DNA sequence: CTGAAAGCGCTTACAG
DNA sequence: CTGAAAGCGCTTACAG
């Protein structure tokens, strides 16, 4: 419990019989230092459990060795109905933490930013903004303060910005639609939402193009973006009115509403209707029936985002956006087993 | 995009026509400063968008104005089956962030700590360790470095430690058992797990005492702590072998296994079996039937933990542990509607 | 290869 | 009520 005073660089220098300068050189791999001296310094630092004071280091170097993470959820997340994506965000966060750690950076969780002053209170070398809205204000704040920023998800209106990492929505959509078509679907609808996140925007565009190429009239229903159960149910009812034989649902939070309405109408999944959702989750895996879903690989996404941010912090050239490949987990909801239709 | 140089305290001093000392006094509410001077300084700081450099501040004061949060999940959380509690942890994390922010503290997400050196790399004034195991190593590391620490959940073996905040497990258990008894249950079992978290340990003890007071033989089945689906199912089968008419399941991740086994055996919930789970979640709310569950109020828990930690950082006397009251959300799984039993 | 010295931007005795 | 000066623990030209 007794907090012994933390060793300073001069303590290490003393033990090693050199100057603080030399200790600094050794520890930071700068300058030329004799191998024997280097060994003595390393040993002394090790023995004392020396860790440079990050405030002093940061003050001198102007770097905080800290990056900020801004999730699109606040403290009121219990209320929000997109709680279904919590696994995704928590996985994203924990992987960001570990990736940052491996790069010798600490990870600051930023609260929702109400203004520039909120952001100014944190000293970070860079920031990661998750799920930017079109012309995202949070990104603008980082830019305004000259702090390097990278987004997870693309800001669909900042078309010149190369500093983002995102799961491949267009590719995923093509994969899902092809999968449903191969399973025999002829009238494939999309049930989505009108939020400006690239995951949804790109899915819609890809769906339209895909339908166009096949000369099919797209059936596209957008739920209200309020994430309320009632809106989900209303949109589900509307899409079923079109009598599709398959539905792709990029926003995973609309899936349970769709299943419920289908059940109420006696529409069997997968017998009468194939379903695939956009973001894999425990719920998708344990749903009845289990739902075919796209695995967005939040772990890789987080790591790529940290890499890209550090590249930007170090003044690197825009390395271009990074698209993260996805995987389709095919489950019972999209498997048309002959004879399984119209089970009682 | 152009990063204009950040204003320093001397810039503010210059604009206000005073010394840096006075600016510091005004901004930190120290010393006596003339009201007019104070106003000029405040205005100047405001106009320049001045924010003290936290590294300089920290170097001088020895404080980092940063607290660390250590969740019991790592980057591999997709694998772990306790993903069901992700809402709880994410809510905890986001509320910790906001509470810290309101106390002018930044919140560092700490990665899993493999040793003292990992912890030394972070400069934090204090730490919050979530769900400590008995004689928790992470807590020991903070103590070893002399960094104030507070736990969310009680370390059941460090009985002298008053620095914790936890949802009231004993109270919740009593509430659930009474609720089930009032609904008519006579043979109330507990399906839990042998992990040393206080939430589970206290629930078991309370259950035993409760049964003892009523002269009932407790039916207590503990699942293996590996969080595998197979272990959950095995434990569920074992508890149903005892033919209980109600089960309280403190670890929420065992609930779906119980429901599945009950369905397979033709045991109707709630007709033949009342069920209540320990941690409320979206899954509990949307389960079929919806599950009666304890709301642990992670938001209050997080805020109290931050309060307590700051109290400890400031050298306050042990204020004693803080028990967070819980709420029971009574849902269909524990409502014995006469005649509802043995629905097809 | 090594070290003395300056300075990063603050806060805090201390003097006036 | 106000300010000059020291110093927190580092890193980095610079000199030797």
UniProtKB/TrEMBL annotation, chains A, B:
**Disordered: annotated span:** 317-344
What are the GO MF terms of this UniProt record?
DNA binding
The family database entries (PROSITE patterns) matched by this protein are listed as: HTH_LACI_1, HTH_LACI_2
Q: What Gene3D superfamilies does the annotation carry?
A: 3.40.50.2300, lambda repressor-like DNA-binding domains
Domain HTH lacI-type, chain residue ranges per copy? 7-61
What Pfam family is a match for this entry? LacI
Which UniProt key words apply to this protein? DNA-binding, Transcription, Transcription regulation
Residue stretches of biased makeup (Polar residues): 327-336
Q: Which domain of life is it from?
A: Bacteria
In terms of InterPro entries, this protein maps to: HTH_LacI, LacI/GalR-like_sensor, Lambda_DNA-bd_dom_sf, Peripla_BP_I
Q: What is this protein called?
A: DNA-binding LacI/PurR family transcriptional regulator
Taxonomy of the source species = Bacteria, Bacillati, Actinomycetota, Actinomycetes, Streptosporangiales
């Amino acid at each position: 419990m007794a907090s012994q005073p933390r060793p300073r660089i001069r303590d290490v220098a003393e033990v090693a019989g050199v100057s603080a300068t030399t200790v600094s050189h050794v520890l930071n791999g700068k300058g030329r230092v004799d191998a024997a001296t280097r060994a003595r310094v390393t040993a002394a630092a090790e023995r004392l459990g020396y860790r440079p004071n990050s405030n002093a280091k940061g003050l001198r170097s102007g770097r905080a060795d800290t990056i900020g993470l801004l999730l699109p959820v606040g403290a009121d997340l219990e209320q929000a109905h997109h709680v279904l994506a919590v696994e995704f965000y928590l996985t994203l966060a924990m992987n960001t933490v570990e990736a940052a750690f491996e790069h010798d950076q600490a990870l600051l969780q930023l609260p929702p930013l109400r203004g520039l002053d909120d952001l100014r209170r944190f000293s970070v070398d860079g920031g990661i903004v998750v799920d930017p809205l079109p012309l995202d204000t949070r990104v603008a704040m980082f830019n305004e303060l000259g702090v390097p920023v990278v987004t997870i998800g693309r800001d669909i209106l900042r078309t010149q910005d190369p500093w983002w990492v995102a799961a491949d929505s267009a590719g995923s959509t093509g994969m899902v639609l092809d999968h449903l078509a191969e399973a025999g679907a002829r009238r494939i609808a999309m049930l989505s939402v009108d939020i400006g996140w690239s995951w949804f925007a790109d899915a819609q565009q890809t769906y339209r193009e895909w339908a166009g190429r096949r000369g099919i009239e797209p059936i596209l229903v957008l739920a209200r973006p309020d994430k309320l159960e009632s809106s989900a149910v209303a949109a589900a009812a509307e899409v079923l009115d079109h009598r599709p034989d398959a539905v792709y649902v990029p926003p995973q939070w609309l899936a349970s509403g769709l299943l419920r309405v289908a059940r109420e109408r006696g529409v069997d999944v997968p017998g009468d209707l194939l379903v695939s959702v956009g973001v894999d989750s425990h719920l998708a895996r344990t749903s009845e029936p289990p739902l075919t879903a796209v695995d967005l690989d939040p772990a890789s996404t987080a790591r790529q985002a940290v890499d890209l941010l550090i590249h930007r912090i170090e003044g690197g050239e825009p390395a271009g956006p990074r698209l993260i490949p996805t995987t389709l987990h095919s489950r019972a909801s999209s498997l048309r087993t002959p004879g399984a239709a119209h089970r009682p």
